[in-house]
Each structure stands twice: as C-alpha cells, then as structure tokens.
C-alpha cells in the first residue's frame, strides 16, 4: 500500500503517465491517428480544467502564469506534437508534486511542535492517589483548574501547573531554549510542553489547556503553518513581462522561419514552473528555518517584510532590559514604616498586570510578608492601581498619577537604571519602592547589528519617564528616545516612523496595539504575553533579544533565495527559448529540458532551509551604572 500511496496522492501524474505510455505504444505500432486523438482528447480536457482554475484565480484578483502553459499545450497539439503536449501536462502536474514534496520537507521543522503537543492527561481522583485505578485518562482540553495530574517519566506536561511533588527535573528546551534540564521544587510553576525527567510527579493545574504556555505556542505554529506566503504576489511581479517576452520570442521565431512548429517549440520552454513552484518552496523553507530557530513567523508576507525592514522601534522593559526588576530599596515617608509600606503596596499590586507589580509582590513574599486581600481594586493602564485594603485606600503608580491623588508626593532622586513605584495611603504620600532593571546582555549587540545591516533608524518607544529611558538608551546604543507614552501615542509614533517598513519589538499587554499597528510586530513571547503574541506578526519563543537578529537574517536570506530561484528559472528559460528559435531544440526535447530547469530551481529554492548564520557577535555585558543622579522616576 505504501508503494501505491503516491499514485493516489497525485492522480493526474498517474493518469498522464498511463496515457503517455499508451500513446507511445500506439505510435510504435503504426496507430498514429488513434494515438493523436487520444492525446488530443486528454490534453484538451486538461486545458479546459486549467482554464477553469485560471478564471477562478482571476475572479480572486490573481492574474498568473498559467496562460503560457495553456498556449504551449494548444500550440503543440495544433502542429501535431501531441507527445510534447503530454510531456507538458506531465511537467505541470509533476511540478505540483515536487512542490508538495518540497513543502512537506520544508514544513517538517515547523510542525515538530504540533506533533508533540500533549493529547491526554492523567487526572488523579485525589491528590495522594497511588493506585492505577485512581488515575483517569482524559483529553487535555477537559482538564480543569485545580485538577491534580500525574505526569509519568518522559511525558510532556499537558497544562500549566504547580508542582506538588517535593522536586522534579524537566526539559524545557522547547519553551526556553535552555538545553540543560532544570529542577523545580514543590510550589514552583511547571509549564506545559516541558518534558518530565525520570521521576513521576504530581501537579495541580492552574490553567486550562487553551490558556497554557505550550498550547499558546502550538496555536501560533498553526497560524504560521496555515498562513499563505506572498509568493503569488512575488511571482506576479514577473508574470506579465515574462509572458510577453515568451510570446514575442515565439512569434518572432514563427514569423522568421514561416514554420508554426517553431512557435510551439519556443513556448514549450516557456512554461512557468520555476515561478509558480520555486518561490513557494523558498518561503516555506524560510518559515521552517525560523521555527527551528524558536521564531514563529505568521506567514510569508512577514518574511518579505522582515527582509526589507528599514526602521526598528523597541519597548524598554522586558525587551531591551531583563524585564525582571528587583527591589533594591524601600523609602517610607514620615509616619510610615518600611514593612507596612511594602505590605500594602504589594497587596495592592496583586490586582495589577504591570511588570513592576510582579517584582514588588515577589519581593514581599521573599521577605516573609503576608499579602492582604482587597475589598475593591481598579487599575488605570500604565499609570497605577488603587485598592481598598483593610479600610485604607492604597495607590501605587507613576509619580504624576500618585501626586494627583496625594498632593504631598515628593519625587525621589534615582541613580541610572533605577525605577520607582510611588505609594499613597489614604490620600497621603507614603513613600517609594526603588527597583532596578538592567539591560539585557545582548541588547548592545542587537542594536549594533541592525544599524550595521541597513536598518537606518532605531528608536525607543516607552511609557517610562525620560530620565530612565534615556539611561537605558545610552547603555544600548539607541540615540532616539520617545518616553512617557501611552499606548495610543506609541501607535501614532510607530505609524509616522520612516523609512518603512517599521519593525516594533515589545513584550507586554500594553504593547499589543503598537505591535498590531506596525508593519512588523515582534513579540517577546517566551513569558506568555498572549495579547502581545496574538497581535504580533513574529513571536520569539525564547527569552533572548538576539532572536530579532535571527528573524531579520532569515527573512533576508529567504527573499534572496526566492528571487534568485525566480531569476535562475527565467534566465535558463529565456536562453533555451532563444536557442529553440533556431530550430535546434525539437518540442519533445524542449519539454524534457524544461523539466531539468524546474528541478534546478526547486533544488536551489530549498537552500532557504539553511543558510549562513546571522553573524551576531557575542553579547557584551552592559556598561556599569553611573553614580550620577536623576531628578525623575517612573513606574515602568
């Protein structure tokens, strides 16, 4: 059955081979007329089918190259070269088979994540179940929050959960890029997609399947796999001139020689398989290579945009910086204690999605401070959070926001690289929490590479105050800073950036609008920023800014391969058509020669699966902090 699989997969090829063999046999036994009518009927049916497809394409706004193939088949039949007409049919259908094979080869890396996506989960009837009868296998989408799951050795964690077993070792390479196994202790979060080590563990589900880390990645992969590359548009740029040149050469050959056969001999070599097949293969190869590099690109159109990017904009926190600020100082105002200030601020921050909120909460927990529950809480995006806790109103946020609610707010002096969350309690300024977030080690190298490789304008778009934003910009080599921006202002600035295309790189929920509005939105998605990931065109699956360079480098290499494959096919076809104008290449030989041209262009297009490395130098450590002070502060 395996041997027959290609026959059923590509029926047109199978039927064409049978018809061609029958016609050759009929020709050899002297039944030329029967062979000619058999070939004419079959090729005529194929021409009609091709014309129907062409009309459908035109109605969808796509004017392609199939007209050349139709003219070539009709011409060869008209001059009696019916065997050549069958070879053209075989060539076109065989080209589609080659495209399918190459596409499956190129898509292999892209679908690797889909193939290992967990399908089932082992749900325990109670937390400490040990008997196999107390384990129920259910579809992963049916796992509920707080279900206790058993993950056996070597299995993939099906949903995000909290580890209940004392400790466990997990391979998280598909999520973080870290090749070494990591050890998690009881109470730690274990992400779906991680591979369990040699010991069975129990976890408590904290998210449903659709909301878990690995399923989010799988959804992005599906979107990338199902997207259509812009290869039709790319090929269409060459369609009309190539068709015109081919018909002109064929017409000149006919006019000069006076032989209509010469028209068919030239057009046989003008069939457009290199344009219709080689370019799609190249773009699929680029998508596959990007996925292998932990970069999900949502379509070939994005690949082409990446190749042409001329401006780059970066968010600051979590993008150019580590995104994990640490609490370095608690400065209470008069009448408040440091412990009280941190407890109330961290308790309010439980109701904030801001990047500093998690750092403040984490700092309080690490100091053994219990967090309190709020009776009521609300957040003003990018400005701050207000919570009613134990009968007291607690506000945590930017200095201007807090000052609008507490008139005695005093701005603090900060050193370079520091950020501050301001706190007011019952309309009184209560103090500040000072945090530090250093640049990523690779930020300097990434900015330098982009500038050295044709990206003419590099800017920072951030909601931070200007002083801290300019500090990080100086350390990373960015000389244009737009600070203290709200999300709509980011969108407006990104829309006005030139030259284009513009690539915007961000990671947070507040970056989603500007990522969606940019020509190319790149989300640092390793930490599960789903809103940013959904809005972005490119999602980086590991926590490394250097993957931005990989994305641009892969885009440029892929477009270069696609264009070269197109020009290779056009060049070889034109040369062969010129030779055929002299009558040196009979129609049958020309059809067979064109098969070799197709094969050469497709094999060249597969180079998009590989290619040279990006050449990004090793990341340099960020410059040490200066001791000068700055008069502004912010909530990142």
* Contiguous helical run count: 23
Distance separating the two termini = 62 Å
- Output the structural class: alpha+beta
Which descriptor suits the 3D outline? Answer: elongated
Our Rg estimate from Cα atoms comes to: 32 Å
Helix amount: 40-55%
Strand line-up of the largest beta sheet = 10-23-22-21-11-19-20
Biggest sheet layout: 7 strands, mixed
- Flag low-confidence runs: 227-232, 618-636
Q: Give the beta-strand count.
A: 24
Beta content comes to 15-25%
Overall mean confidence score, pLDDT: 81
Describe it.
This protein is an alpha+beta fold and 636 residues long. The longest helix has 35 residues, at 546-580. The model is unreliable at 227-232 and 618-636 (pLDDT under 50). The strands form 5 sheets. The protein has a 7-stranded mixed sheet with strand order 10-23-22-21-11-19-20, with helices on both faces. The chain has 23 helices and 24 strands. Helix 20 links the parallel strand 21 (502-506) and strand 22 (520-524). Helix 9 (231-257) runs parallel beside helix 22 (546-580), helix 10 (260-268) packs parallel to helix 23 and helix 22 (546-580) packs antiparallel against helix 23.
Topology:
Elements: H1 5-9, H2 11-28, H3 32-59, H4 66-78, H5 82-107, H6 112-115, E1 120-124, E2 135-139, E3 148-151, E4 161-163, E5 167-171, H7 173-176, E6 182-185, E7 189-190, E8 195-196, E9 201-205, H8 213-226, H9 231-257, H10 260-268, H11 273-292, E10 295-297, H12 300-308, E11 311-314, H13 316-320, E12 326-332, H14 338-349, H15 355-366, E13 376-380, E14 384-389, E15 392-397, H16 399-405, E16 414-415, E17 418-425, E18 428-436, H17 443-452, E19 457-461, H18 466-476, E20 480-482, H19 487-496, E21 502-506, H20 512-517, E22 520-524, H21 530-535, E23 538-540, H22 546-580, H23 587-605, E24 629-630
Parallel strand pairs: 11-19, 11-21, 19-20, 21-22, 22-23
Antiparallel strand pairs: 1-2, 1-3, 3-9, 4-7, 4-9, 5-6, 5-8, 10-23, 12-18, 13-14, 14-15, 15-17, 16-24, 17-18
């Amino acid at each position: 059955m395996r041997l027959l699989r290609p026959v059923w997969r590509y029926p047109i090829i199978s039927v064409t081979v049978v018809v061609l063999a029958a016609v050759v046999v009929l020709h050899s036994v002297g039944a030329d007329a029967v062979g000619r009518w058999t070939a004419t009927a079959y090729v005529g049916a194929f021409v009609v089918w091709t014309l129907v497809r062409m009309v459908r394409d035109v109605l969808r706004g796509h004017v392609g190259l199939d007209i050349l193939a139709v003219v070539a088949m009709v011409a060869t039949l008209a001059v009696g070269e019916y065997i050549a007409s069958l070879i053209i049919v075989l060539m076109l259908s065989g080209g589609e088979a080659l495209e399918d094979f190459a596409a499956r080869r190129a898509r292999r890396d892209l679908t690797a994540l889909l193939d290992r996506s967990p399908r089932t989960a082992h749900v325990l009837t109670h937390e400490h179940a040990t008997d196999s009868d107390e384990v129920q296998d259910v579809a992963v989408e049916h796992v509920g929050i707080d279900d206790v799951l058993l993950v056996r050795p070597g299995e993939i964690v099906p949903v995000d959960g909290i580890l209940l077993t004392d400790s466990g070792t997990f391979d998280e390479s598909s999520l973080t890029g870290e090749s070494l196994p990591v050890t998690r202790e009881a109470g730690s979060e274990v992400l779906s997609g991680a591979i369990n080590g040699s010991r069975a563990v129990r976890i408590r589900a904290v998210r449903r399947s659709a909301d878990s880390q690995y399923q989010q990645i799988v959804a992005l992969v599906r979107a990338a796999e199902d997207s259509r590359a812009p290869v039709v548009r790319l090929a269409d740029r060459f369609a009309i001139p190539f068709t015109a040149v081919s018909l002109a050469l064929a017409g000149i050959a006919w006019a000069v020689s006076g032989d209509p056969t010469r028209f068919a001999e030239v057009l046989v070599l003008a069939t457009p398989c290199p344009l219709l097949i080689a370019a799609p293969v190249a773009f699929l190869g680029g998508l596959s290579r990007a996925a292998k590099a932990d970069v999900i690109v949502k379509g070939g159109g994005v690949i082409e945009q990446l190749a042409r990017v001329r401006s780059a904009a970066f968010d600051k926190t979590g993008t150019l910086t580590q995104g994990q600020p640490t609490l370095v100082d608690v400065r209470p105002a008069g009448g408040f204690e440091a412990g009280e200030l941190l407890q109330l601020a961290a308790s309010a921050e439980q109701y904030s999605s801001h990047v500093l909120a998690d750092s403040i909460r984490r700092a309080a927990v690490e100091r053994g401070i219990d967090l309190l529950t709020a009776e009521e809480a609300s957040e003003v995006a990018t400005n701050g959070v207000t919570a009613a806790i134990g009968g007291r109103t607690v506000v945590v946020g930017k200095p201007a926001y807090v000052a609008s609610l507490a008139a005695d707010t005093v701005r603090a002096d900060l050193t370079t690289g520091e950020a501050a969350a301001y706190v007011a309690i019952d309309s009184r300024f209560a103090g500040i929490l000072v945090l530090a977030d250093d640049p990523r080690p690779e930020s300097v190298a990434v900015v330098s590479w982009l500038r050295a490789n044709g990206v003419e304008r590099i800017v920072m778009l951030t909601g931070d105050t200007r002083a801290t934003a300019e500090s990080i910009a100086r350390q990373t080599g960015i000389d244009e800073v737009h600070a203290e921006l709200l999300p709509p202002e980011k969108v407006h600035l990104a829309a006005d950036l030139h030259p284009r295309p513009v690539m915007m790189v961000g990671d947070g929920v507040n970056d989603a609008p500007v990522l969606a509005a940019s020509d190319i939105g790149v989300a640092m998605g390793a930490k599960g920023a789903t809103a940013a990931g959904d809005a972005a065109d490119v999602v980086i699956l590991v926590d490394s800014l250097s993957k931005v360079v990989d994305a641009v480098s892969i885009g440029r290499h892929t477009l270069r391969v696609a264009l070269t494959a197109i020009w290779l096919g056009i060049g070889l076809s034109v040369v062969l058509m010129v030779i055929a104008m002299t009558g040196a290449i009979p129609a049958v030989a020309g059809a067979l020669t064109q098969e070799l041209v197709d094969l050469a262009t497709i094999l060249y297009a597969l180079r998009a699966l590989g290619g040279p490395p990006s050449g990004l130098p090793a990341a340099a450590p960020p410059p040490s902090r200066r001791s000068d002070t700055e008069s502004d502060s912010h909530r990142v």
